[in-house]
Write a structure and sequence with these properties.
2 copies of one chain form a homodimer. With 443 residues, chain A is an alpha/beta fold. The first copy, chain A, has 3 domains: 6-175, 3-Layer(aba) Sandwich (Molybdenum Cofactor Biosythetic Enzyme, Chain A); 182-258, Alpha-Beta Plaits, CATH 3.30.70.2860; 264-416, Maf protein, CATH 3.90.950.20. Chain A is built from 14 helices and 17 strands. The first copy, chain A, has helices spanning 14-17, 25-35, 50-63, 81-89, 97-110, 157-175, 195-201, 234-251, 264-274, 289-294, 313-318, 324-329, 335-349, 396-416; strands at residues 6-12, 39-46, 66-70, 93-95, 123-125, 129-131, 140-145, 148-153, 182-190, 212-219, 222-231, 256-258, 279-283, 304-310, 353-359, 374-381, 384-391. In chain A, the strands form 4 sheets. In chain A, strands 2-1-3-8-7-6 form a 6-stranded mixed sheet, with helices on both faces. A 5-stranded mixed sheet of chain A has the order 14-13-15-16-17, sandwiched between helices. In chain A, strands 10-11-9-12 form a 4-stranded antiparallel sheet. In chain A, a hairpin with an 8-residue loop joins strand 6 (129-131) and strand 7. In chain A, helix 9 packs parallel to helix 14 (396-416).
């Protein structure tokens, strides 16, 4: 997506350059600007030192029309941003009465005494225009020099991003006459395809266009597909998004988990609730991870009865009813065991659906026939009992996470009537598995 | 800790300035330099654009004696760092035969064909000195100008940090005559005290000294205490660490989880294994999180039998044997229920120790007597049955995590013979709980 206006990001604070914190403000500011069609040219971070702040500001303003700075607006001695900017402009600091009253009022609301040092937060370079902060005490401010602008915001991520979105970006868009363009974004959450496979399938859609940009944002184990579009009006931008989304949906209909921020576990819970089904789990390799994921969702207790985390064979036998014959004849990592675990979960939880997973997370315990990364999923639902096997080798935490996601995805696919495949062939005693599939693997 | 030598960090890549990735290289480089007594003055990030890279390099080298740069050393068209640095120096690029052979050899080891574009990774500015990469294909390189140096490393975090630690930092230390100083670091993992409380208790130890620095690095739900010391020899630096650590251990003996990177779950498993005890869980509020944490540790199956995640009351009753009278008379969130769950876990898992947790994660389900964040932990061990109650209000995921950590910490304290306290008073039917305690809360 072509963009005329260019920005530089400047973050200020000793904790940033000392590596004490991860400075996520930089990337958040960048994404926010990008959504508005403003390109980021570079980023600088410096400590709380007057001369370095002035230096970095001069560098930024000489390279981009807009500079967005954050940090150093607090009440303490360490906070030097306002003073540094006043120095840079060659103007004195002044107290802004309106902002001072806002700060005083905020402390009254909190019923807390205001420290004298907080008054410092209403002091700006004489020629600056304050940017009110509706979410904290530190207001921001804007300066202009040689037709270029710089905006200084507090470093608290929550306050920063809201001020940027609600006040600063609209002001920039107006100031630089970008108001005829409207920006819209949409994100699809995708599971079950590697980034390179997805890149191949969507190569043509991903080609940058004047008014459209598609970004692949992997967040293991899912990939977020972010679509940015712009047009002369909101309906125009939405129309572009609609047509691109239709193309994507046509290519990978079964891999799109949600069209908003809903994650796998929430989607599965909603599908179950809609069908009036309750769920119980039997987990071995995942150690409780699927239950943990499901119970992240508020209200999950309406659908989720519980999970039998049967790490020992003894628990698989006594609590879930996996037979001694299965355990000794096929082993705990087998189609048969997964099936009996799923049925056992259903009974133990008194639920409509039982979902199980058993496997080898590693680093030990693998064999030539069943290497680390082998796992079997069992599903027992009304009218269906099936199992699927997978081999997705990797580091222990990676294997556990994929086993949990594959189990939830198998249930999602079942509830939506999609194909359900595995990567491991039948063993003589297990049920059918076909196809080849694996995130992170082409196939 | 005073430091003479100053550094600037430069990270290069479109994905950084577009906010597509979180650039953790900056903070990792900063921490690594700081451990060696090199102060970071500032950081710049630019996209893959020759002129901007040269510009940023000039800026960095004019402000600090050492510049550490990362990124843009890959094989594709996008990777422009070497060319930009050659431009900056006014010298041509040349192929380094030794590095080219190392790259070719790596591909032979992997039994993969080498793309012609990979040869580009052995091309450096004529006057540069290559920095071999033992962990990937892209070598780095060092340049010198006006007595100042800049080192360019690949952007892959794992390769970058090892090259920095093993080759670059030692070279800088030698180059700038810092070799008389030896740097040593140690990290303690602390749980159960808020950052501000810990800051108060250790105020005097945390005061910066010429040869010692203490950093508080919160990684919810623990705080890492990082100690950096330097001295004329390794034993000198170790001696400083020993004396500071002794001070800290004296103040907070029961809150130190480990003196290395071992996390709570690993420490608990090791204590159990040493005593020959097996463990089973009964989880409600945590939904499986404790089992998931425990099974992160390789070999946990030697100790961990499993977990009954009894989200429904029906499962608490049928699988764990919690009585109807307890559920209707005291409720599922009570001392009594926690106790019966712990005993039920012990039976279901056929284990020596049963650990349970039941509570209200929110956002719904709270009452005036039992608000969101209320939870009860039960422990059934040889010769001990006890319960403790806590109220630690917060967001759902936060409450779940603290409930899981408090349960593991209660077991840890029991195994070590420490005090075990709760924040909630007795209810008439529960067992004793005393003291007041809560991470994130003072008192």
């Amino acid at each position: 997506m072509g963009a005329a206006l260019q920005a530089w990001i400047l973050t200020i604070g000793n904790e940033i350059i000392n590596g004490v914190i991860t400075d996520t403000n930089r990337e958040n500011i960048s994404r926010e600007l990008r959504s508005a069609g403003i390109a980021v040219k570079g980023m600088t971070s410096v400590g709380d030192e007057t001369r370095l702040i002035g230096d970095a500001l001069e560098y930024a303003m000489s390279r981009a029309e807009v500079t967005i700075a954050s940090g150093g607006l607090g009440p303490t001695e360490d906070d030097k941003t306002s003073a540094a900017v006043a120095d840079f402009l060659g103007v004195p600091l002044r107290t802004d009465q309106e902002q001072l009253e806002r700060i005083e009022q905020r402390f009254r609301q909190w019923a807390r005494p205001m420290a004298p040092s907080n008054a410092k937060q209403a002091m700006f370079p004489e020629t600056a225009i304050p940017v009110p902060n509706d979410y904290g005490t530190a207001p921001g401010f804007m300066i202009e020099k040689d037709g270029r602008i710089a905006i200084f915001l507090p470093g608290v991520p929550r306050e920063l991003i809201r001020m940027l979105r609600e006040r600063v970006v609209p002001a920039i868009v107006q100031r630089f006459g970008m108001s005829e363009q409207v920006f819209r974004a949409r994100t699809l959450i995708v599971y079950g395809l590697s980034e390179s496979k997805l890149g191949e399938i969507l190569a043509d859609v991903a080609k940058d266009e004047e008014d459209f940009h598609l970004a692949f944002l992997p967040r293991f184990p899912v990939i977020r597909l972010r679509m940015d579009a712009r047009g002369p009006s909101a309906p125009d931008a939405e129309l572009i998004l609609d047509s691109k989304q239709a193309l994507i949906e046509e290519r990978i209909p079964e891999n799109i988990i949600s069209r908003d921020s809903r994650q796998m576990e929430q989607v599965v819970l909603e599908l179950l609730e809609k069908k009036g089904l309750t769920l119980a789990l039997a987990e071995s390799i995942t150690g409780g991870m699927i239950g943990e994921m499901i119970t992240r969702v508020p209200g999950s207790s309406r659908v989720f009865m519980g999970s039998i985390v049967s790490y020992s064979n003894d628990m698989k036998h006594r609590v879930l009813g996996v037979t001694e014959e299965t355990l000794s004849g096929h082993g705990a990592v087998s189609h048969r065991c997964a099936q009996e675990m799923a049925l056992g979960a259903l009974r133990a939880g008194n639920a409509a659906v039982g979902l199980s997973v058993t496997g080898i997370a590693g680093p030990d315990g693998g064999t030539p026939e069943k290497p680390v990364g082998t796992f079997f999923i069992g599903l027992a639902a009304p009218d269906t009992v099936l199992t699927r096997g997978f081999v997705l080798p990797g580091e222990r935490g990676w294997v556990k996470t994929l086993a949990a996601m594959q189990a939830l995805d198998l249930l999602r696919r079942h509830l939506l009537g999609y194909r359900i495949h595995g990567t491991v062939e039948d063993d003589a005693e297990g049920s059918a598995s076909g196809g080849r599939f694996g995130p992170g693997k082409e196939g």
